[in-house]
Amino acid sequence: MSTSRKQVILGAYLGGVNHHTAWWHPRAGSQIDFATFEHTARTAERGRFDFFFLAEGLILRERAGQIFDQDIIGRPDTLTVLASIAAVTEHLGLAGTINTTFNEPYELARQFASLDHLSGGRAAWNVVTSFDAFTGQNFRRGGYLDPADRYARAEETLNAVHALWDSWNDDDLVADQSSGRFLARADAGKFAFHGTQFDIAGRFTVPRSPQGRPVILQAGVSPQGRAFAAANADAIFSPYGKLPEAAEFYRDVKTRAVAAGRSADEIKILPSASFVLGDTEAEAVEKYHAIRNEQVTGQTALILLEQIWNRDLSGYDPDGPVPTIDPDPDAAPIIQGRAFVHQDRFATARRLREVAETKKLSLREVVIDQFERGPLVGTPAQVARHIDEFVNDDGSDGFILGSHLVPWGLDEFVDRVVPLLQDRGVLRADYTGTTLRDNLGLPPVRSGTSDRRHAGTAR
Q1: InterPro entries attached here (predicted)?
Q2: Which segments are annotated as binding site for FMN?
Q3: How many helices (H) and strands (E) does the chain have?
Q4: Could you report the per-residue pLDDT of 213-262, keeping only the tens digit for each?
Q5: Structural domain containing residue 325
């Protein structure tokens, strides 16, 4: 294959509290034991993946005031897990989801700069927001933010964190020849940030980390979310796994990045995807349908639709038709703690009814058909070809991959698909960079004495 083809970025995510994980499988492992995280990370590194990604839920999800009885409960603290994984890997990036709504810039800057030092330059922060009082009840400040303010706080939080990271320059630690120690310059670590959310000043305790700044990840579908990500993120999670929607999203975000004064290459677009492999295409499709039928039970299908309808649908037959009643967006939320990704409840309900009518599907079959993260289904050769062509047709810059089987599922992809991607010349045979930024093809972030930034304001 031509070496001019785009290189595929690969991230690995660990399936957790959701209906995509086959927690009942005889070979399924714990969601809490360190061995689960270690095996997934080591497998990803063996496959020359760019990074390991952890999502985070800040509260146990509920339906009508009761904990979901089909959810997996339990996930250790993200940064603790990533720091532990840093000790058993050498090259793999370590990406963690941490909320801007309930955390302070100083804490965030210190935690991620520390992880970047401990890992030798492999830290990444997935910047997310939370605006609901249900999640906020676990925190001192509660649900104090109006939904419209969440990106304002997120952007100011990120700007403040950047000011803290940039308070140290690369040359602020100077070798003292007489003692053999490194001494800090007099103004090292000084910062001041004045905004609408934060008014802070002091000295930052962590010297500039190997990447200068840890990699910033973000997910945003709305125009506001896309604008925030295009201006601030190094990579953005795309919700689109199929063309042409994926290519349209790709072009839109890259265009927004250029409009924000950046190069289009400075932001990477990465959809998440599951995979099912077979020795033949027919075998893979059969396995995929069997897995999905087990994952999406009748109860699961009803709960997924309840989040859209915001109504109690327990009286509906999962094997019957999609509800004809309209959603009730003004009622108290029946589902709590699950991110709402549908921009328009009424339009989504209409679309599901139209799909059901066109394809002659029941309620549960519609959910199986529509609530999937762009699965990669086929033989290893077919999946490798699809990934290569999708990336080189500018549907994305890579994929974040996860399996229904935790933690063993990723092994099959690494053993059977990775060698084919390497043969096609679109995946590294070995790591060449020393940091996550290097491996992602992102420009380095360095700061010299002449461009020190002691202060920042919300843009």
Answers
A1: Diverse_substr_monoxygenases (IPR051260), Luciferase-like_dom (IPR011251), Luciferase-like_sf (IPR036661), NTA_MOA (IPR016215)
A2: 97, 151, 222
A3: 15, 18
A4: 999 999 878 888 898 899 999 999 998 988 899 999 999 999 999 999 99
A5: 297-370
Eight-class DSSP state of 19: T
Both 363 and 391 in one domain: the answer is: no
Distances (CA, A) of 121 to 103, 115, 212: 23, 8, 9
Number of domains into which the chain is organized: 2
Instruction: Tell me the pTM.
Output: 0.90
What stretches of 311-459 adopt beta strand conformation (E)? Answer: 335-336, 376-378, 398-401, 455-456
What is the distance between the alpha carbons of residues 197 and 161, in angstroms, rounded to a whole number? 13
What does the alpha-carbon distance between residue 280 and residue 184 come to, in Å, rounded to a whole number? 62
Neighbour tally for 46: CB within 10 Å: 15
Domain for residue 287, yes or no?
A: no
Domain boundary among 320, 354, 370: 370
Q: Residue ranges for the binding site? A: 97, 151, 222
Q: Is residue 233 part of a domain?
A: yes
Domain finish residue from 370, 395, 415: 370
Q: Can you list the positions of beta strands (E) in 169-265? A: 173-175, 182-184, 190-194, 199-203, 215-219, 235-238
Strands 173-175 and 182-184: antiparallel
